[in-house]
Design a protein that fits this description.
The protein has two domains: 38 residues, no CATH class; 178 residues, 3-Layer(aba) Sandwich (Rossmann fold). Helices cover 29% and strands 21% of the residues. It is built from seven helices and 13 strands. A hairpin with a 2-residue loop joins strand 12 and strand 13. Helix 5 packs parallel to helix 6.
């Protein structure tokens, strides 16, 4: 495919280079507008693949965050990029798969004595937490601390019923207590057994925790005299330790 302003040409299903009659604005992408899988199957495969990717860069925890709100109770195998359906992801694990053993273990590891509460949904799905210090008090999502809520959102992203083929995490350690890095690292390592995970972190403790799982190599990016380099990267684009 090639684009020159509003003009787009691509190879069709027979390999012929043809002009695509498509109304496209400068601010729009071709893949966002192209919906003709029968004529352009290769482009459609690329489009559908990218639509399945998840970039968890905007998991807000402020008072108005969608993470703090109930959501429509529908089966939700994968967390949305903004985390708005987190409650439905937990409800899918608890009441459709009927297995939250791994999720409960992660919560216990991060918050000893705490328990994730996922009531049976009606029209809406919700979740809450109990803590060892307050055994008779149930804390709704709207009451949870930013760090607790962010950790739960990452658990929803990495432990959902069905993971996307690619997950990107940008500084997942933000708002988290340093003592949560080992639990988060193990959770990322487990997710890497099911899908491809790419992340950027400024936390050396998290990087070490991930590396300890054997899930993949940790690469260090440095900036020296205005130049950005990656430790071990050769001029051929390979790493010396590969």
């Amino acid at each position: 495919m090639d684009r020159d302003g509003p003009a787009v040409v691509a190879r069709d299903d027979e390999g012929r280079l043809v002009s695509i009659d498509i109304d496209i604005l400068p601010s729009e992408t071709v893949l966002g507008r192209l919906e003709d899988p029968s004529r352009y199957p290769a482009l459609d495969r690329v489009r559908r693949t990218l639509l399945e990717w998840r970039f968890y860069h905007d998991l807000r925890t402020d008072a108005g965050s969608p993470l703090r709100q109930p959501c429509v109770a529908v089966a939700t195998p994968t967390l949305a990029s903004d985390g708005a359906d987190l409650a439905a992801v937990f409800a899918t694990l608890a009441h459709i798969r009927a297995d939250t053993a791994d999720l409960d273990a992660v919560v216990e590891s991060a918050f000893p004595g705490a328990r994730l509460v996922v009531p049976a949904p009606d029209r809406h799905a919700a979740f809450a937490m109990t803590f060892r210090e307050f055994p008779h008090r149930v804390f709704e999502a709207s009451e949870l601390s930013d760090g607790t809520l962010r950790f739960l959102s990452l658990a929803g992203a990495l432990m959902a019923y069905r993971l996307p083929p690619f997950i990107a995490l940008n500084e997942p350690e933000s708002s988290l207590h340093p003592d949560l890095m080992e639990s988060l690292g193990r959770m990322i390592g487990r997710a890497a057994e099911r899908t491809q995970v790419w992340l950027v972190t400024h936390s050396e403790r998290l990087a070490a925790a991930i590396e300890a799982t054997g899930a993949g190599a940790v690469r260090t990016v440095r900036k020296t005299d205005g130049a950005t380099t990656i430790d071990g990267l050769t001029r051929l684009g390979t790493f010396r330790d590969d």
